[in-house]
Write a structure and sequence with these properties.
5-stranded parallel beta sheet; Rossmann fold; alpha/beta; globular
C-alpha cells in the first residue's frame, strides 16, 4: 500500500530523553495512519532503534564551531530523506530548530521554506527563555550585522507552521506576528505503560515521591519544606540528581541539610540498581517545580492511580484544565510572612539578579523591572516561597523547624490530599481520553493535513527581539531560574 504522504522528522540527536521520546511516539502514532516517516539526526544512537526508519546525518548534531554550510546541509537532508522514504517528503517536521545549538539547521530550514517545502517547526524549548548563551549565538548569527542576518530564524509563511507544547508558547508566537491558524497546540502523549500500573492504598499516603531530575527550577527547597512538616509515618523521595555543575552544588547542599536535619527523605531512588519505575515506589506524588515546558508531571500520576499534590503552574495547567481535569488540589502560591525575612536585602537581590539576567541577553531592564518582579512575588505582607533563592528558603525552613506552630502563618499550611484522592478517577479518565497516543496521532495528522492544503507563499520573518520581550517579562522573574 502506498503511503498517504511522506514525512521527514529532523532532530539534532537520538539520545534517550524528552524530545527523542516524543519522536519515537510520533512515529509509532503515525504508523497506523499510513503515513510514512523517517527520522534524520546528527549523532549515532547509544542503543539500537527498532521499527523506526532512521538516518544519522553529518551536520545535524550540536555544533559549537558553526561549521559546514546551510546549502550543503539542506541537500544532504533532502537526499537522505528521499532515499529513506522512496520519494521526496511532503512535509518536513523539524524539532527545536532555533535552540541555538547548531546555526546551520535554522539556516537550512529557511532555505527549505524559500524552496516552497512545507514545514512544521515543533518548539519544545526557546533559547530566549532561560538559555542566554544559546540566544547570544543566535543573535550573533541571525541578528543585525550577523552572517545570516537576511535569513529568517523564525520563518513566517502560509506553508510554514509551528507546533507548541502549551498555549502560553502559542500566545507568545501569535503576539509577535504569527497567525493563530499556523501555530498549533500539540500536547505530548502520556506513556500508556503507566496506566493503572499497580493498585494504590486509599487509606493514607505513606510514601511521597517527586519524580524529577532535581535541577534548580524543580524547587527542591519547597519539597523539603513539606518533608520538614511530615507526619511521623510519612517518607519522601526524589528520583534523579542533576547533571549540570551549577545545579549539582545547590543540590548537594540540600542533601547535606536533609541529613543534618534528619528528614525522612531519600535521594536518587531512580538510580539504584534494578530500581522500579517511580510509579511503583510511592503512593503519592509531589511537584514543586516553578517552570515547565509541557508538564507531564501533572498528567502521569493520575494514569498510575496516584494522587498528586503540590504547586500549580497556571500557564501550563490551563491547557489541562480546559479539557476537564480537576487540579484544584494544587496551589499556585506558597505564601510565607515577609516579616520573617530581610525584605530590603531580598529586594536588592531581586534587582541585582534581574539585571544580570537581562545583561546575559545583551539587554538592560526597564526602570520599573524590579518593581514589576517584586509585585509578582509579594502579595500584602507575604511573599511566595517559590520566588525565593535557596539560601532564603533555607532560612524559612529553619524557622519552621524551630517552631512548628509557625506553619499556621503559611498558606497553604498543608497539602490537599483528600481533594487529590477524590480526583484520581476523573483525572485518570481525562488523561487517557485526551493525551493517549492515538489522540496525539490524530492531532498531528490534522496539522499535517492543514499544511498540505496550504499555499506556498513569500517567506518573511518573525522578529527575534519581540520573542525575547515575552520571555524576559519581569513579572515572570524567579530567583531559582538565575
Amino acid at each position: 500500500m502506498n503511503p498517504a504522504f511522506r514525512v521527514a522528522i529532523v532532530h539534532y540527536h537520538y539520545r534517550p530523553g524528552g524530545v527523542t521520546n516524543v519522536i519515537q511516539r510520533t512515529v509509532e502514532a503515525l504508523q497506523p495512519l499510513n503515513i510514512a516517516a523517517t527520522v534524520l539526526f546528527g549523532r549515532q544512537p547509544t542503543q539500537p532503534i527498532d521499527n523506526i526508519s532512521v538516518c544519522c546525518l553529518e551536520g545535524l548534531d550540536y555544533d559549537e564551531k558553526d561549521s559546514g554550510s546551510p546549502d550543503n546541509l539542506t541537500e544532504k537532508m533532502k537526499t537522505a530523506a528521499e532515499a529513506a522514504l522512496g520519494g521526496a517528503p511532503d512535509i518536513w517536521h523539524i524539532h527545536n530548530h532555533a535552540l541555538g545549538k547548531n546555526m546551520m539547521l535554522p539556516a537550512a530550514v529557511a532555505k527549505l521554506a524559500r524552496e516552497g517545502q512545507r514545514i512544521l517547526l515543533q518548539i519544545h524549548d526557546f533559547a530566549e527563555d532561560g538559555r542566554p548563551a544559546n540566544y547570544k549565538r543566535l543573535r550573533a548569527a541571525f541578528g543585525h550585522g550577523g552572517p545570516l542576518q537576511t535569513t529568517p530564524l523564525y520563518p513566517l509563511a502560509d506553508h510554514v507552521h509551528y507546533a507548541v507544547l502549551n498555549r502560553r508558547d502559542q500566545s507568545w508566537l501569535c503576539s509577535i506576528g504569527a497567525e493563530l491558524r499556523h501555530v498549533h497546540w500539540l500536547p505530548n502523549s502520556v506513556p500508556p505503560e503507566i496506566n493503572n500500573a499497580k493498585p494504590h492504598s486509599q487509606s493514607g499516603v505513606k510514601k511521597w515521591i517527586y519524580p524529577t531530575r532535581a535541577i534548580r527550577r524543580k524547587n527542591i527547597g519547597e519539597f523539603l519544606l513539606w518533608v520538614t512538616l511530615a507526619k511521623n509515618d510519612e517518607q519522601f523521595a526524589v528520583t534523579l540528581a542533576p547533571t549540570n555543575p551549577n545545579d549539582c552544588a545547590i543540590y548537594e547542599r540540600w542533601k547535606t541539610l536533609a541529613a543534618e536535619w534528619k528528614l525522612p527523605v531519600e535521594f536518587e531512588v531512580g538510580l539504584r540498581a534494578n530500581s522500579a519505575p517511580w510509579w511503583q515506589q510511592g503512593n503519592g506524588v509531589v511537584t514543586t517545580s516553578v517552570a515547565e515546558g509541557f508538564g507531564l508531571a501533572f498528567l502521569e500520576p493520575w494514569m498510575a492511580g496516584i494522587p498528586l499534590v503540590g504547586r500549580d503552574l497556571p500557564d501550563i495547567t490551563c491547557d489541562f484544565k480546559s479539557v476537564g481535569m480537576d487540579l484544584s488540589m494544587l496551589y499556585s502560591r506558597l505564601a510565607v510572612p515577609l516579616k520573617w525575612l530581610d525584605a530590603t536585602r531580598l529586594k536588592d537581590q531581586v534587582s541585582t539578579r534581574l539585571s544580570e539576567t537581562w545583561s546575559a541577553y545583551g539587554r538592560k531592564p526597564p526602570p520599573d523591572a524590579t518593581e514589576q518582579a517584586w509585585r509578582a512575588a509579594v502579595k500584602g505582607d507575604t511573599i511566595d516561597f517559590g520566588r525565593l533563592d535557596e539560601g532564603t528558603q533555607e532560612t524559612v525552613i529553619g524557622l519552621l523547624r524551630e517552631d512548628a506552630t509557625r506553619i499556621d502563618a503559611v498558606q497553604p499550611s498543608c497539602l490537599s490530599i483528600e481533594n487529590s484522592r477524590r480526583a484520581v478517577g476523573k483525572n485518570s479518565a481525562c488523561v487517557q481520553q485526551q493525551f493517549n497516543p492515538q489522540s496525539y496521532g490524530e492531532r498531528l495528522s490534522a496539522i499535517y493535513q492543514d499544511l498540505l492544503r496550504s499555499t506556498v507563499g513569500i517567506v518573511k520573518a518573525l522578529p527575534m527581539d519581540a520573542l525575547l520581550d515575552q520571555a524576559l517579562n519581569p513579572g515572570r522573574f524567579n530567583l531559582l531560574r538565575t
